């Protein structure tokens, strides 16, 4: 018995695949371009991180003469940890914005 081929379903699947490919490219561009600023608990260190997780800049604020290396290292550690979380949050938010309306083949 020959199988019936649903040409409309195949055409729809191809179009959805193409749309998904466009959305993936848009998402990739967005995560590399979107930058989040994160500050240490004492606000002495600022880290700029992309949604992709790449740290693009580290800024030290204020005078360091009164700081010891251990205190500064603790602040840098805290802000880098927070930057990782901020990048994850930004990725999830961008993903929801870009792919939120995308439906699967079985969804109408």
TrEMBL record:
**InterPro entries recorded:** YbaB-like_sf
Report what the protein is called: YbaB/EbfC DNA-binding family protein
Native species: Pseudosporangium ferrugineum
